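Q: Got a minute? One more chain.
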Amino acid sequence: MINTKPYVTYLSRPLETQQVDSVISKCYVNEAGQVSFGVINYVPGWFIALHHHHTWELILIDSSSAGPGYTFFGGQWWRAEPGSAVFIPKGFSHAWSSGNDKGFKMLWIYGGSHKEADRLYDVDPQTFRPITQEEEKAALAWTGENIE
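A: Always. Here it is, folded:
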């Protein structure tokens, strides 16, 4: 059922909470056919392997994050500084990693419910690895002009 009226949600009361190792993901808005929103606190060295979604995704790197987030697409790692946003089109393969020494807080928004967006892995998650320290140093900051 689609909500047809506005409502307020409180970050102290998530609709869903998932824990993987020491990382906790919380979902606060989950509207079928419309939008979902949540937060993941990445700890140093944690990552999500190369994957894609059935919907678009908008990622905001919380400005209070200790470090940047790193996203992998187009064959390389990109640095997303605190306070930045990353738009991922529907079906576009990407991965996420925190740095080796600093974590970050990711606010995610999908163009549909969490279930509709889904996460479809493009590689075996057991064989994909987080960003290395050398790759962190080489990761480009997004300018919009440095990709074709």
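A: Residues 133-138 form the longest helix (6 residues).
Q: Perfect, thanks.
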